[in-house]
Design brief:
Strand content: 15-25%
Low-confidence stretches: none
Oligomer: single chain
Radius of gyration: 25 Å
Helix content: 40-55%
Strand order of the largest sheet: 7-5-6-4-1-2-3-8
Structural class: alpha/beta
Mean pLDDT: 76
């Protein structure tokens, strides 16, 4: 028997939880057929400190095909932490993180299972059409992936979110990683293993509204870059060396010019340009160092990534 666990982080999703379970029940025969005889299903909700009725709605769910479990976090820790909590508590032989808003089509899981049976330890779900996302989100996502591919030691796959299938071996490795500033897409890429990809068109959100505001997306992007590469720090070493070399050349020129032509009246504009340029570069480099140092401080404190308030067995399924 093979168990599939769907890890579903939620935050204020009372409108989407029940339709999500109903949709999973509709497509389960297709997924079970791909998995083979004796396949079983577990839906593991991770309540990331919801302030609406999400917890109550889940507590009253019933399913004829799936075992339903609920992990309640003590407050809102963010989706990356909630996903990590779900991976730690998932029991499945294969695990699929999936959004409750149905923008990750459950039908794709059957094809993911086929790729897994062919030998892949990780099967990514890649979005080929993001026309339902806003213009700004599409452009900012494209810019982030382009920058990330140039900077990261282990680039993430473009247009691949958290929706993917992972073998128990891959989940076990992910659960051993202790990063506090979590960027799960980067960790999924870092672990290696044989990877395959299934493409799908991203539909509209079923109900509710996205919780990914601009501030959260910016923080996630910064976490993604700083947690996967130190190249931005190394750039300032090279840039500082170039500026220092140029300063030495310019100093030598001034000395020679003074010896040959005599003392010259210095220009206010040139001095201010040099001071402002070097001062701006110093502040920018200090800010970048501060970003890394702040994450080091968070890691050194050693606090848990999340706090579990309770674990509830909602329904044992069929």
């Amino acid at each position: 028997m093979k168990l599939l666990t769907l890890v579903v982080p939620i935050y204020n999703e009372q409108e989407t939880v029940r339709p999500f379970v109903e949709r999973i029940e509709e497509v389960w025969p297709q997924i079970a057929s791909a998995m083979g005889k004796g396949a079983t299903l577990e839906i593991l909700f991770v309540n990331d400190g919801s302030s609406d009725l999400s917890r109550d709605v889940i507590a009253n769910l019933k399913s004829d095909v799936a075992r339903l479990r609920l992990v309640n976090l003590s407050r809102n820790f963010g989706k990356e932490a909630a996903l990590s909590a779900g991976l730690h508590h998932a029991c499945g032989d294969i695990v699929v993180p999936i959004d409750v808003d149905l923008q990750d089509p459950p039908e794709v899981i059957a094809e993911m299972v086929e790729r897994w049976k062919s030998g892949a330890k990780v099967v990514n779900g890649r979005r080929t059409d993001r026309s339902h996302d806003g213009w700004f989100k599409r452009k900012s996502a494209s810019a982030f992936y382009s920058l990330f591919e140039r900077l990261a030691d282990h680039p993430v796959h473009r247009d691949v979110g958290d929706f993917r299938l992972m073998d128990r071996d891959a989940v076990h490795v992910i659960n051993q990683l202790s990063e506090q500033s979590r960027f799960n897409k980067g960790l999924f890429s870092w672990i290696g293993f044989e990877v395959d990809t299934v493409e799908y068109k991203r539909p509209e959100r079923f109900a509710g509204e996205t919780k990914w505001k601009l501030r959260k997306l910016w923080s996630l992007a910064i976490d993604g870059i700083t947690s996967t590469t130190t190249l931005p720090l190394r750039v300032w070493t090279y840039l500082g060396a170039v500026i220092a070399f140029g300063a030495f050349i310019y100093a030598a020129f001034l000395i020679g010019y003074t010896i040959v032509e005599g003392r010259d009246v210095p220009g206010y504009a040139s001095i201010m340009v040099a001071v402002l340029l070097l001062g701006g570069l110093n502040l920018l480099s200090l800010g970048l160092i501060g970003e890394y140092l702040g994450r080091v401080a968070v890691q050194v404190r050693g606090r848990p990534l999340y706090v579990v308030e309770s674990i509830e067995e909602i329904d044992a399924g069929a």
